[in-house]
Amino acid sequence: MEYVQVEERLVSVDELLDADEVFCTGTAVVVSPVGSVTYLGNRVSYGEGIGAVSQQLYSVLTRLQMGITEDVMNWTVELR
Fold it and tell me: Transmembrane ranges (predicted)?
């Protein structure tokens, strides 16, 4: 996977409705695609299943969690 520049910030509703792909992340869910968003009666669908970016992020994160990929950022902790 190519490196992706990450920016943590608030996202406007207009940006959300205009997005090609939307997903949520978390420790247990890893990466979960959002199927659609409805705002003021306007429903926007983001396709079926997981998108390309979501799939890449999911693969990278789960490979780190399973120890398949070297964790050069020290994100994981070995349980004893």
Answer: none
